[in-house]
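Can you give me the bound-state structure? Components:
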Amino acid sequence: MSHHLLLATIDEQARPLSIRVLGAYAESLGVRTTLLVILRKIAPFGSPVTFSASEIQQLTRFLESEHVTHVGFYLMTASLRPYERLVRALREAGFSGVIMAGGVHPTLCPEESLVAGADYAVQGAGEVPLGLLFAGAAPETIPGLVWRKNGSTVVNPPTEAQRLPLDDLPFPIFRFDTDRILVNGKLQRLSWTMHTRYAGWNGLLYDAVTSRGCLYRCAYCCNVYRSPVRRAGVDRVMRELVDLRRREPRIRGVNLQDDSFFAGSDEWVTEFCARMKTEVGLPFIVRMIPRFVTAERIALLKSSGLRYVTMGLEGSNRINRTLFNRREDRESFVKAARKVLAAGLPLSIDYIVHNPYEREDDLREVATTLNALPRPNWWIVALSLTSFPGTPLHERCVRDGTLTRFATDAYEAMLNPSRPGAYHTPDFWLDLITVVLRHVRPELGAKLIAAGPGNAHATETVRRLASTMRLTQRLTSSVQQRVPRLARGISRVLRLLAGRRAGRIVDFF
Ligand code: B12
Ligand code: SF4
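Here's the bound-state model for the whole set.
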């Protein structure tokens, strides 16, 4: 019987990069592959992701009618429990094919990822284990495979053999009307229209990875590939993007998802830039690591299409050093951020909030750091600290007994600060750092920071400014979705009004 592999993911957005990459490899082996995106909001504490009887029925019908022989799930930590429920339901509904999981969570926590009713889990890169499974290899010979033997769980250690040269991998699947999406209770074809509705950025950006691994070891991070970073040759990257342009001219840009794209050698970056401009001609986004930012690199990347940069500040110097194990500090961050902004590029800054280890001094330092940046071309993406099992941060929190002080939970409420009674960053600092500072002049910023939450007038000012600015953001993004062409103008007017208000307030201080 011929194989049919359904590769699935549970995600907030229809951007299934991992299964696109793995699915392309399965197809290159001659295995018919269909991708399935199960769209779900990240759950808040106490409201687990569940599946309705009708959803299970539609999935089971699909598995039957399309003769699916293997179901493979990509798992982040937060998808483990929903996956467990789904496996139970599919088995109860009579599905008898192979069920397995891979991805970041099985790599971090292999044993628990082999849930009841499933056959296998895979630790590390999935291409080689998947190929061996389809070739009928004995489980004990498959690197990274997690399987059962006489009722107990066996974890085969991952090996070097799993690390295929990135240049040899086929281009990720990127197609419409073949794959499926389960959204609003209905299993539907993943068409271009669905993609533009659910993929974020109106579906116009193509997610790509050119490397695996990261030079750093931040204590909260689940980067399972670590150092050394393995990178595809520029030629392989260009062929993928040129092919994309030919097959999908509706794509308007590339979102490079590499953890440390910017840490590539000067030669790699220079060749990438030259060929991106001449051969691909699409604008792109990258994540940057502050110490690797130089004015020359920024200029080079900008001239070849770089439009927008994401970079992490994450915490104060004390938090970065003593808790996060980050090698970057506020000096390296400000230096790099200024270079990005001086080049006229918008900068999105990741910052970690609701950290039970933070103190007032840390928050004041972060606010002061951000207040040193020229306005208005930057903003904060606030991420709630989540302690993921398998990370050094988690080990420390278990030792310290602090897990229940976290407002998030890796399994039940990943990045969603909803645990009752847990620690939250005080509103004054949260509003000032994540919303207000970038909209007000540095003099007002400095006054608010110096006044602090103990000053009733400063507290009221920050609260009022933050609520006006949040309303502005909500209005702009709602207009953006409905009438994209009007959004920029409306946003400018609203910002001007908010700015006037802030101007009146600075006079008051
Ligand atoms: C791109 C990316 C995204 C993309 C695409 C997601 C995806 N993976 O398809 C988007 C933007 C959607 C995304 C969103 C989020 N992400 Co994200 N993301 C990444 C990133 C940077 C790269 C993942 C990737 O595609 N790599 C390339 C592929 C080819 O490698 P891979 O994923 O490891 O897959 C290989 C193996 O794992 C295995 N494999 C994978 N699936 C399967 C399935 C089977 C059956 C088998 C056998 C093998 C197998 O084979 C693959 C090929 O070798 C990772 C960091 C990282 N380096 O992993 C974070 C990461 C996965 N994200 C993370 C998080 C927290 C999020 C968000 C919560 C972030 C946010 N702020 O909103 C959301 C949550 C989305 C949700 N579930 O609702 C965390 C997950 C932590 C955890 N323990 O769960 C990570 C690890 C970041 C980190 N450093 O901590 N993300
Ligand atoms: S720099 Fe980013 S990807 Fe690398 S270890 Fe730190 S958080 Fe993870």
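A couple of observations. The mean pLDDT is 93. The pocket of cobalamin (ligand 1) is lined by residues 11-13, 15-19, 21-22, 42, 72-74, 76-78, 100-105, 122, 125-127, 129-130, 209, 221-223, 257, 259, 383, 388, 414-415 (CB under 6 Å).
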